[in-house]
Amino acid sequence: MKFSADPKQIFSHPIHVLAFGFGSGLSPIAPGTAGTLATIPLYLLLSELDAVSYAAVLLILIAGSIYIAGRSAELLGVHDHSGIVIDEVCGYLLTMMLAPAGWQWLLLGFVLFRLFDILKPWPIRAMDKGIAGGFGIVLDDLMAGLYALICLQLISWITL
Questions:
Q1: Total-model pTM
Q2: Measuring CA to CA, which of 4, 34, 62, 95 is 20 to 30 A from 54?
Q3: What's 60-123 look like in SS3?
């Protein structure tokens, strides 16, 4: 059963605003893709950081996202609502960690992350189904981000 979120409800609670990527998760078509697209400006800001600072910000964001995604799902009464896209934010930022500069790498990272997030190859699908709460919501996207990160780094290593 698909559960739709009322924009008034989402924008009336700060947890939902964050979980729904400031409204990007309300997209009626492909909310995960919309949430990932909305992450690009944040990535561009973070890409100016050194690797250690980027990783530190990402770890803080992941910890906060686990709480935010879990609390939003709890308040909505729906586990892993498709509009909760803060997990896509974390997954895409993980994908782009140490990515080479340039729009083609930004685009390739986007495509790789969405591909792994949608296809959910083993063990991502098992994690998505088997782990509850905010940790489960965020973990499958982190795994998709990790797969995409590895592919992006291998492609950059081969081509650069």
A1: 0.94
A2: 34
A3: HHHHHHHHHHHHHHHHHCCCCCCCCCHHHHHHHHHHCCCCCCCHHHHHHHHHHHHHHHHHCCCC
Q: pLDDT per residue over 120-135, tens digit each?
A: 999 888 887 778 899 9
Q: How confident is the model at residue 85 (pLDDT cuts 50, 70, 90)?
A: very high
Measured distance CA(12)–CA(107) in Å, rounded: 33
The CA distance from 151 to 98, in Å, is 12
Task: Check if the beta carbon of residue 43 is closer than 8 Å to that of residue 33.
Answer: no
Give the whole-angstrom CA distance, residue 49 versus residue 113.
21
